[in-house]
Design goal:
Layout (H helix, E strand, L loop, with lengths): L8 H14 L13 H12 L6 H15 L5 H20 L4 H25 L12 H21 L6
Helix pairs in contact: 1-2, 1-3, 2-4, 2-6, 3-4, 4-5, 5-6
Keywords: Cell inner membrane, Cell membrane, Cell shape, Membrane, Transmembrane, Transmembrane helix
Subcellular location: Cell inner membrane; Cell membrane
Family: Belongs to the MreD family.
Length: 161
C-alpha cells in the first residue's frame, strides 16, 4: 500500500523559510540568522532528488532574491552551488548518522558564507559583520530539527497512532 503524496509540504516549507528569512530581528542578532532557505532546499535535494535539483534551487533562489531585495541572482547562485554539492555527495550523505549529516550541512553553510564573502569582495560591496560566520554553526545545530519536521510533514507520521 503506497502512501498518499503530500504535495503541499514542499511549497509550504519554501514559503515558511522565506518568511523566516524576512522576519525582523534586532540588529545584534541579525547576522546570526540561519539560512533557513538553504536548510529547506538541502532537505528537498537530499530527499526528493528526482524532482528537486539545480533548477529547483535556482528558481527558489530567484524567489529569495526578489523577496529579500538583494543582489539579483546572488541567492540563486548560492543555492545552486549548494544543490550541486549535495547532488554530488547525496548517496553518501543520505546514509550518514544525523550528527554527521549535520556536520556536512554545517560545512555547506560555511561554504555558502565563503561564497558570499568572495562575491561581495569581487563586487566591492561592503563586508558583512564578522558575526555572520557563526550562522552556519546555528544552521548545523538546527538541521536535525528541520529534517525531522519536514520528514514528518512529508510522510504524514503525525497522523499514525
Amino acid at each position: 500500500m503506497s502512501r498518499p503524496r503530500r504535495h503541499w509540504v514542499m511549497p509550504l516549507s519554501i514559503v515558511l523559510a522565506l518568511l523566516l528569512g524576512l522576519l525582523p530581528l534586532p540588529p545584534a542578532v541579525q547576522p546570526l540568522r540561519p539560512y533557513w532557505l538553504a536548510l529547506v532546499v538541502a532537505y528537498w535535494v537530499i530527499e526528493d532528488p528526482e524532482r528537486r535539483g539545480l533548477g529547483f534551487a535556482f528558481i527558489v533562489g530567484l524567489l529569495a532574491d526578489l523577496s529579500f531585495g538583494g543582489l539579483l541572482g546572488e541567492q540563486a547562485l548560492r543555492l545552486v552551488v549548494m544543490a550541486y554539492i549535495l547532488q554530488r555527495f547525496r548517496a553518501r550523505l543520505r546514509f550518514f548518522p544525523m550528527s554527521q549529516q549535520a556536520l556536512a550541512i554545517g560545512g555547506l553553510l560555511l561554504n555558502d558564507r565563503v561564497l558570499v564573502w568572495v562575491l561581495h569582495a569581487a563586487l566591492k560591496l561592503p563586508p558583512a559583520p564578522p558575526a555572520i560566520w557563526l550562522a552556519p554553526l546555528l544552521g548545523m545545530l538546527l538541521w536535525p530539527v528541520v529534517f525531522a519536521l519536514l520528514s514528518t510533514a512529508r510522510q504524514g507520521n503525525w497522523q499514525r497512532r
